[in-house]
Structures are given as structure tokens and as C-alpha cells.
């Protein structure tokens, strides 16, 4: 069986390494390492402009991860920015939405991670709650800085997610926004405070899952292993 190629969208940030200080396309190595550990080959996908670019990329992939990162532009879901919504990246928003268009047309397996879940919701015509602490009264989903929140989530019985990770687990979160509504997806996990922590496409025919947590940072390889298995089946179809 051919080893599946898994695309990973990247950040575009000002970065420093060696003698250099310039814009760079970067992604925490844990993403690629987790894909390799699960039997896939990671391919980094920096933002690209141009008609047809996303279709060309998706035609060569077996699976896609929409990675974590900055807030989504609230204009994408016809909302005014919350005071805490900042530093969105128009180039990345456009690229990832185009990738999701192409992935949907090709029935490509997709996993959205944190921001990735939010992009998936917006792509489907949904909206975001721009500052989750306003709703739940605490900062446990994103304590600040480079610290992850430790959040207990419960999965929906019978969901694809539950089959991959079990009925409950404690996850690493780093999100101050969350999904308000998600047309075309069904809820598959929530935190104790009611925050939606995962959704998935109904029916089970296609692997299309979004989670607010960061499975690449912990021993939770069930999600990425599930994506890689789905990608291997897609490659062999």
C-alpha cells in the first residue's frame, strides 16, 4: 500500500533563525512528527494565491490537516471584530477556504485542528463566538502565552470521534474563540462548560472532523491515526 501524503497548512510569520530575521512559512514540528508516527508522509502547504492552486494540491494529497493559528477574519462570517479578535491572516484564510472547497469536491479526508475547526465551520456557512470567556466565564481553554489549557471533553456515543478516542479524554487546548454554529456538521464532543470541542460530517462515509484541541501535542494519536488510515484507504480507492 502506498504511504499516504498528508498536507499540513502552515503559518506565515516573521521568524528568526541563525543569522536570518524574515517572513517564513512555519509549523510546529509536532504536526509532522505525529503524521510520521501514524504512518503518513507530511507535506507542508504554505498560503498560495492563484486560481487552481488548491485543486492542484488536493489532487496530489491523500489527506489534509487545517492547522492551528490566528483568528479567522470575522468578515468571513459577516461579523464585526470583537475587541479581542486580532491579527487575522487574509492570505491564510483564503488559502485554507480554497483547500476546503477542493477537498470537498474530491471527498478528501480532512482534519481541522483548533483554528482549523473554526475555518471548517466558516467554510460551511457557520459563525464563531469571538471570545469564549465571555460565554463561559473563565480562561481555561486558553490560559495565555504558550501554555495549553487542560480540558476534559466528553464525546458523543456512536460518533466517529468516540470510536477513535473513546468516550472521554483530557485534551490540550489553546483557543479563545469557538464555533457558534456549524451547518452540515454534527457535534461530537463538548467540554463540561458546554463549549463545542469537536464536530464531524454525518453518515461516516468521509473522514471530515474538526477539533478545538491540539492532538499533535499529546499521546492522543487516535485522531491523526484515524486520518492517516482514512487517507490510506482514499489513496487505494
Describe the secondary structure blueprint for this structure.
Layout: E1 5-9, E2 11-17, E3 20-26, H1 29-37, E4 41-45, H2 53-58, E5 63-66, H3 90-106, E6 110-113, H4 115-123, E7 127-129, H5 133-136, E8 149-155, H6 160-165, E9 168-173, E10 178-181, E11 186-191, E12 196-200, E13 208-211, H7 222-236
Parallel strand pairs: 1-4, 1-5, 5-6, 6-13
Antiparallel strand pairs: 2-3, 7-10, 8-9, 8-11, 11-12, 12-13
CATH class: Alpha Beta
Count of β-strands: 13
Number of helices: 7
Rounded mean pLDDT is 94
- CATH H-tier superfamily: Class I glutamine amidotransferase (GATase) domain
Cα-based radius of gyration, to the nearest Å: 17 Å
According to CATH, what is the topology? Rossmann fold
Architecture overview:
The chain is built from seven helices and 13 strands. The strands form three sheets. Strands 4-1-5-6-13-12-11-8-9 form a nine-stranded mixed β-sheet, with helices on both faces. It is globular.
Descriptive tags:
two-stranded antiparallel sheet; Rossmann fold; 9-stranded mixed beta sheet; 237 residues; alpha/beta; single chain; 7 helices
The gist of it:
By secondary structure, the protein is an alpha/beta fold. 28% of the residues lie in helices and 28% in strands. The chain contains 7 helices and 13 strands.
Amino acid at each position: 500500500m502506498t504511504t499516504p501524503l498528508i498536507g499540513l497548512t502552515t503559518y506565515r510569520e516573521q521568524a528568526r533563525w541563525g543569522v536570518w530575521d524574515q517572513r517564513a512559512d512555519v509549523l510546529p514540528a509536532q504536526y509532522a512528527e505525529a503524521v510520521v508516527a501514524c504512518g503518513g508522509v507530511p507535506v507542508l502547504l504554505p498560503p498560495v494565491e492563484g486560481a487552481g492552486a488548491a485543486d492542484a494540491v488536493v489532487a496530489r494529497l491523500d489527506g489534509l490537516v487545517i492547522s492551528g493559528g490566528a483568528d479567522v477574519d470575522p468578515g468571513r462570517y459577516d461579523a464585526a471584530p470583537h475587541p479581542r479578535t486580532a491579527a487575522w491572516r487574509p492570505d491564510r484564510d483564503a488559502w485554507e477556504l480554497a483547500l476546503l472547497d477542493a477537498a470537498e469536491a474530491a471527498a478528501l479526508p480532512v482534519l481541522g485542528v483548533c483554528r482549523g475547526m473554526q475555518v471548517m465551520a466558516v467554510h460551511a456557512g457557520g459563525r464563531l463566538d469571538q471570545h469564549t470567556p465571555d460565554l463561559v466565564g473563565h480562561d481555561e481553554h486558553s490560559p495565555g502565552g504558550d501554555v495549553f489549557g487542560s480540558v476534559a471533553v466528553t464525546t458523543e456515543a456512536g460518533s466517529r470521534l468516540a470510536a477513535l478516542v473513546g468516550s472521554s479524554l483530557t485534551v490540550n487546548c489553546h483557543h479563545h474563540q469557538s464555533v457558534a454554529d456549524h451547518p452540515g456538521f454534527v457535534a461530537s464532543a463538548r467540554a463540561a462548560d458546554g463549549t463545542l470541542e469537536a464536530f464531524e460530517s454525518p453518515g461516516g462515509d468521509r473522514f471530515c472532523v474538526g477539533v478545538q484541541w491540539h492532538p499533535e501535542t499529546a499521546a492522543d494519536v487516535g485522531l491523526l491515526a484515524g486520518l492517516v488510515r482514512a487517507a490510506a484507504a482514499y489513496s487505494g480507492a
